[in-house]
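Recap quiz, item 2
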Amino acid sequence: EDKVVQSPLSLVVHEGDTVTLNCSYEVTNFRSLLWYKQEKKAPTFLFMLTSSGIEKKSGRLSSILDKKELFSILNITATQTGDSAVYLCGLFGNEKLTFGTGTRLTIIP
Amino acid sequence: NAGVTQTPKFQVLKTGQSMTLQCAQDMNHEYMSWYRQDPGMGLRLIHYSVGAGITDQGEVPNGYNVSRSTTEDFPLRLLSAAPSQTSVYFCASRKAGNTEAFFGQGTRLTVV
């Protein structure tokens, strides 16, 4: 069965800090790994990763995938209060999109 | 652009009642899925569909039925609601292939 494990479950940092969120996975037929940000309502898409070692970047957020070690990280630099959210890691494999429990990130002004 | 539309946004049911959560998408996406989200549990897959007429079970299918008679619609039926089904339900859709999933705004269901 496909499995996604995110760590830490929650994280509290001060504005301006850099954070790293982790996602490890197990899947028999890997297609892609996706990161989403969830604030009050529906998750919103951040990145899709399919190849190892290629960094995806959007502003202060970046992510990379290691298909040999079966993990991905999401980095956020110079955090802002608007980055406070739950970050979800999703694994697309075997025609299903399976999510981890998420990391709740809180940024203190 | 409507995207993925879920109705209703909120619902309160009594134990044993049945109801259908509606999900519609106008993007001609082949894949549609239903998730439930409970505190500390992330998104758990209930049922999914890879196309009209095809559905399959996810991680937590018990107590829920689905059907996919058209590409656009993917309703989720609760046959006999239980308090354990109190949750926020999200519908998602995506195009076939390696593509992102788009989510509806969610339905908050309370079973008393």
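The two ends of chain B are 36 Å apart (CA to CA).
Chain B touches chain A through 26 residues (CB under 8 Å).
End of item.
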